[in-house]
Amino acid sequence: MDKQLIPDTTNAEQVNHLYPSLPISARLNGEELHGVHRGGVENITPAPARQTNMSSADMSSVQAQLDMLWKQREELISINNKWADQYKVMTQYYKAKVREQQPSAKTSQPTHPLNEEMCQNGVEQSVQEKDVKEETSEEKIMSHTDAEQLRVQNAHLTRRGQHQHEEIRRLNQALHQSLESGFVWGESREDPKDNVWKHQAEVYKEDFLKERKDRERLKGKLMEMEKKYRKTHSELHTLKSKRRCQDQNSQDQEQIYTCHGEHHTYCVKVWSAFEQAYVDHDPCQVPPQAYDHLLSIAPPLPKYNWTLFWSGTREVAHQMSGGCYQTLEDTMLGSVLDGKTWCGKQGSNETFDSGCPNWTQCVNNPVRSFWSRASAEFAAVACGDAAVLLNGSSDTPFDPHCTFGSIEVKNFTPGLMKSLTVVLVTKDNVGANCTDESLKNLQKELKPGMKYICKEKTESELLTCKKNQDQSCVPCW
């Protein structure tokens, strides 16, 4: 094969950036766009009465894509032309080779069979012709193979060219629609659906704000009504307690009179409830709850603003009580049972006043359980301003283990009892004062809403005040 007749194919190089992928949104049909050419969109004239909604950045992007597609189209056409030229040159080359072989085959046949020399030459020529035919056959096969490869490549490049034309048409269509959209350049075009969603969102927002405002208003009214209710309930409870405390004296006198009069039904009822707590029971197995029924029939009714508690000051407290101040021992049950001892025994219906366990012998003995339960009830119904006399001569005026510290303080009723005045009783101003640490613990034990007051008084001052006290019941502290 003559190498000089084979065309040079080194210049037919493949271009790598021919066919970039385009976004789907840019693939629009553009058959109706007029005046689009490789130079860009300079020759496109939009309708005079219309404007576009595309921004300058979007227009630049479309222009860049158009330029790139035109450049790829020119490269594709150039490659197609080169392949076509090469195909024509190869076709002419192989046709010339075939024509050259045909005359040599015809002249190789013998014209004089009798001439031995000529026959010998004919045999030699036949061998040469066979060799030439084989070589020609191989060359034909190679040429057909090359031609087939060229046709495949040409078809592939043709399809790519068609794809480029379609992309150009789509971009032209998109540009044409943007120019004829009728909106101002640089302004955003709102979708009607977006407007609907925005309107619905605004309606929902207004409804939510209105409902929240209504809820806040109703909540404010509810809180105001609850505040008024609590205030009214507290005032009503205070008035009832005051009325009950003011009527205590007359009720106690009536009950005592009933017990000593002809109609002693109430007295019998109280005595029966009293015996029910301890009769026929182990004297060390009588809990404070055993006297619940008794105290429900004959509850302690303290005086309003004159309830007096004591701890370690029994004698002074009882000297101050009576008339104005009232201790637990001044109530009906307290006055009857103060200083008494009683108990029962299993298997017996009698009440015994001897052979009973003392105060410390067992915790649940009849006497100790009664005073524990009665003290809790007396503290629970204390109303108004109350006072407590503490022993200022003691190292710990407020003992959390005594009856006042362990029972009565823990049963004060907030709202019913307004304040507690602590009176430290000393002898000749010798002893603790209101800054004592135990009194700070007492102040912490009081429930919220109770006012705490502390005063220091000598025993002589209190007794002198009580002696000079008239019916006006002026406080002595």
TrEMBL record:
<feature type="coiled-coil region">
    <location>
        <begin position="208"/>
        <end position="242"/>
    </location>
</feature>
<keyword id="KW-0808">Transferase</keyword>
<dbReference type="GO" id="GO:0016849">
    <property type="term" value="F:phosphorus-oxygen lyase activity"/>
</dbReference>
<keyword id="KW-0520">NAD</keyword>
<keyword id="KW-1015">Disulfide bond</keyword>
<keyword id="KW-0175">Coiled coil</keyword>
<protein>
    <recommendedName>
        <fullName>ADP-ribosyl cyclase/cyclic ADP-ribose hydrolase</fullName>
        <ecNumber>3.2.2.6</ecNumber>
    </recommendedName>
</protein>
<dbReference type="GO" id="GO:0005886">
    <property type="term" value="C:plasma membrane"/>
</dbReference>
<dbReference type="GO" id="GO:0016740">
    <property type="term" value="F:transferase activity"/>
</dbReference>
<dbReference type="GO" id="GO:0061809">
    <property type="term" value="F:NAD+ nucleosidase activity, cyclic ADP-ribose generating"/>
</dbReference>
<keyword id="KW-0378">Hydrolase</keyword>
<dbReference type="InterPro" id="IPR003193">
    <property type="entry name" value="ADP-ribosyl_cyclase"/>
</dbReference>
<dbReference type="GO" id="GO:0030890">
    <property type="term" value="P:positive regulation of B cell proliferation"/>
</dbReference>
<dbReference type="Pfam" id="PF02267">
    <property type="entry name" value="Rib_hydrolayse"/>
</dbReference>
<comment type="similarity">
    <text>Belongs to the ADP-ribosyl cyclase family.</text>
</comment>
